[in-house]
Write a structure and sequence with these properties.
It contains 10 helices and 4 strands; from the N terminus they run αβαβαααααβαβαα. Strands 1-2-3-4 form a 4-stranded parallel sheet, sandwiched between helices. Helix content is 43%, strand content 8%. With 257 residues, it is α/β, with parallel strands linked by helices.
């Protein structure tokens, strides 16, 4: 996202349970926890109407945050206990890049498709080549880097593009507790109330079903840009098309000073 820093002020934070925000606290981290944390960041930095960019799970979090910021949601499952809507600065806009599925059904479809790809002949061949390379003994750091890349190769339209990636780690129990907290979720109808200007970008070959983003786009009244020859990692697979779409959107919603 630093590609946008030339014309926009960007703020990044590591979500609780990952990166420099890893924690040994056994208390379950839920989607509500993440919404509270994002609201705390916005309030601490005095962002009255933040424009939120969310990638993958961050895209779903952005939608959950937007829902929590509105007081008109009747379903108590999508309220954050103890967090008044007035303490959640309403987003000015949403940019959702290959957002995580908005329903449990689409989540299950994604999990099945990603597993199929990871077990497919292309990724398995790359794993065999790594095992036979001797890299583990020769250069353990390079071996760990390559192992990480192969662990996410199924996200790509072409698994061979999974090179030179920045490793990321999220504690497994945190991932599990977040998804468990969502239960049998379906955000479709929750997104239709008081939607803000929104852009969704989705790779056509993303293992996350395109249908999920299509439904979200209709509910939000969002612009949907589908990138061909692109899986779940558009900033690696199709960076020019990705940032062209994002800049065009921001130009249209941001007043010229």
């Amino acid at each position: 996202m630093l590609a946008l820093a030339e014309n926009h002020e960007l703020v990044f934070y590591d979500q609780r349970g990952g990166g420099k925000s890893r924690t040994d606290d056994p208390t379950p981290i839920t989607w509500q926890t993440h919404v509270e944390d994002l609201a705390a960041v916005a309030n601490e930095l005095a962002f009255d109407r933040p424009g939120i960019i969310g990638y993958s799970w961050g895209g779903l979090l952005a939608m959950l945050y937007s829902i929590a910021a509105r007081g008109s949601i009747a379903d108590p499952r999508f309220r954050v206990p103890g967090l008044a809507e007035s303490l959640v600065p309403s987003p000015q806009s949403l940019i959702l890049l290959d957002p995580a599925p908005i329903t449990r059904k689409h989540r299950q479809q994604f999990e099945a498709e990603f597993s199929r790809r990871q077990q497919g002949p292309v990724v398995q061949q790359m794993r065999a080549e790594l095992a036979a390379s001797g890299l583990r003994e020769r250069d353990p750091d390079a071996y760990r880097q390559r192992s990480f890349e192969l662990s996410v190769a199924g996200y790509f339209a072409d698994p061979a593009r999974a090179h030179d990636l920045t490793p990321f780690r999220v504690v497994g129990r945190v991932q599990q507790s977040v998804w468990s907290s969502l239960g049998d979720f379906d955000l479709t109808t929750r997104l239709t109330h008081g939607a803000v200007p929104s852009l969704i970008v989705h790779g056509r070959q993303d293992p996350i079903p395109l249908e999920s983003s299509e439904i979200a786009a209709r509910a939000l009244g969002a612009r949907l840009v589908v990138l061909d020859d692109c899986g779940h990692v558009p900033y690696v697979e199709q960076p020019q098309s990705l940032f062209d779409a994002v800049r065009d959107f921001l130009t249209q919603i941001t007043p010229v000073l």
